[in-house]
Queue: 3 jobs
Job 1
Amino acid sequence: MFQSLSESADFFLFPDPGYTHMFFESEIMMEAQTCSTGYGKPPWRFKGRALYQFHLVKSDVARALIPKEFTLVQAFGYTLGGFFYANYDHSPAGVFDELVVIAGIVWNPPTSCAWASKVLVSSNEACLHGRKEVGLPSHVARFTQRLATDPRPERSRGNRFLNMIGLATTKPSSRLHLDTEVTELSGRTHTSEDFSINLQSSVPEENSKVWLGPFIKMSLPSFSGRTEYNPNLLKYSCQMECRVRVIQPLQIYKAPPITDLRTERQDAEEQQSSNSAHRAMAETNENRRHLSLSVMLSKPILALEFNCLNMNVEDPLIISE
């Protein structure tokens, strides 16, 4: 079991086999910090556990989120997007969670790179570092986990050989599933914004034994930048060492909206006093938020779980100012 998300929490999005059946809820709340001081010089090292889920994303949705200078890798009106969800128990910013929305894949000869349209983290320090140093569209978010009853019937065990070599999907529990709600927070008061998503994962049966998969090394190249915090176009790479296995894709659905009447009144007053440039920026951000939600809610095709993860993030290179 990985280190807990908080002092009172000891559960993750990917529960270990043999977890005792009990109700549990953890809530990560961030306190504002003024500067990013723990990262030091690159490469920045992260350890923990992660999941990379691939989705079929409509090309027009991805195209609206990716800079025009890139060629979108697409076929039959779709590109390959999805999300990267990680629980870090060791990092320059300490223990935190991260959800990266991958809008699509762009061509960069001789290979291709991912483009992140939105990054949500439970650490203010990680948010500031991602914005300034890596050029990511990072935002602070609240990650809430809850173990709940799963009314769906039990599924078959499938191919035993695939299970032995770590390529079969995990058998869901007929009783329990883990709900992880990720809600973007805004401003110093940490009021909720419109971007709120639920990730639902199956809980393995108690005392079940599952092979974590082979140990591999890989590189995940990505582009970033073109944000208000870092307008340059950047390229960076994540060097990863981990054990990988195929799992059942997580079910994704939009969380119910949370209305803050005080915030709505403040927004109305600010909108009346703001100029046209500010309104245009707000409309652009709102549009990108809804497009990123569309990426998360698109059709999943494959989910890879990364255990015993060791990841080094290299210093981004400026490819266009």
Job 2
Amino acid sequence: MESEPDLPKSPSTRHKCSACYKQYKKKEHLVEHMKCSFHSVHQPRCGVCKKHCKSFESLREHLTGPLPKSMCSTIFSERGCNLCLEIFDNLLSLNNHKKLCGLSAPVPLGTTKKSFAESQIEISNSNEVNLVERGSKAVALDCEMVGGGDDGTLDVCARVCLIDEDESLLFHAYVQPLISVTNYRYEVTGLAEEHLSNAMPLKEVQEKISQILYNGESIGRARLDGGKARLLVGHSIEHDLDCLRMNYPDHLLRDTANYRPLMKTNLV
């Protein structure tokens, strides 16, 4: 008796983000992505494929980086402005635009050539005293996430930065991932394996950040009425803190993604 021929397997369904075109095996992962990505019409978009990018630097990587999208790169090289990254219908329009385009030339981030030691801002004993005495009432925090897990959809903090109210840099470090990185998300993060080869351990990062945030205040007093502890500002700040495995009093958080009215504490 002849055996039945093997039926071709149908390709597994992939769930695709309509803004940045990332694909996920599970629908719930796509939903989580949409909750924390905050795509909007204000984000830079590729003039060819209409992909949303996190920043103009990410858009530049998409068009001209080490691994650009071939079709987008080809069209951009022919009809794109190297300053504002806009793409035009013809060369005449492009030439007329170049006479008026007033954006300054982009400055490379320089992350690929920086060593771990150069990238760290070490807080010496004298700097620690200055940080405690500085009058800044708020600091802003931002994290860059790489992907972990089988399909690279788990957010893993790989880079963290804190600035004060004057946009002065307080702390910056590459963070040693606790799990294996399966997707560096280079087009968005600009990070590669070499950046994390000698990264700072997460526990040390937590200590540095806590030192800046609590500003010499006790944890008990900070939880009660703030004391000298600083307000922490960020976009989806609770998600960043989760990825850093840190806690901070709710009444000292200011999330720009979900504005909360200022509470009556001695910090406001």
Job 3
Amino acid sequence: MGCYDCCVRCLGGIPYVSLVATLLCFTGVALFCGCGHVALSETEKLVEMYFAHNHQDYVTLADFVQYFQYVIYGLASFFFLYCILLLAEGFYTTSAVKQTYGEFRSTGCGRCVSTTFVVATFILTLIWLVVFAFTAVPVYFLYNMSFTCHTINLLAETSSSLTQHGWVCIDARQYGLLPWNATPGKVCGMTLVAICKTKQFFLTYDLYIAAFAGAGITLLALFVYVIATTYNFAVMRFMGRKSMTTR
């Protein structure tokens, strides 16, 4: 067998769909975990500096940030291992395995493993869909905050009254970041505009957008994995029936 035939044989054994899904998953999880971790810390600082003067008002938020940052560490490790397993399962079901090791026989254990991956990946996709929707909440909050600042600037430029823009506010309590008895809980007028001009606000906003994009990329990778694992399961079933008929 020549070098060209060997290369074609090796390239034919690569599960390209699983490989693309793995790269997408690694990229998405890295964005989500890395940017989300820093964004949570910056959010806590923003709330502490501008929306809550009493530590007891944002202690729940601080605990949530701390716990979720530990969850992020676990998510990164879990997805790394799970993606490697899915990629290995993709290699296992390629035609190169059959060509290399002779006539391929699908065992009951192999079909059970493929079924487990299909079900687990589908459940994980549903769970991550909820995470993806949850990630949109801080992006929506900071977008509203930025849009409100733009509105205040327009009112300040077009109105002769110095107090007209004072009633335009952002209330963090409406988004569940603080309890309803938190004081002040909201920021209004030019104070809000000053916050929107800080580097901390822009950094937090950009980080949440990146984390949201990372969650979307991960969700796309999981959808691709569902397709790949379903195809692999069909291959295992087909090979299982074929092996039974050739005995």
